[in-house]
Design a protein that fits this description.
about 50 residues, mainly alpha, single chain
Amino acid sequence: MSKKGSEKNTRAKAKHSKLMAQKKNKLKSEAATRKERLKAIIKKAKEE
């Protein structure tokens, strides 16, 4: 026998998964920018 009415936890789960995706994307972009900065520093050091 299934429940009647609206499903209980779907909104909270959707919000949580959205926030976790945002966090994951933020970390990924920060890592990429850090890598670019390091490449620029290394390139500048090699030129000198």
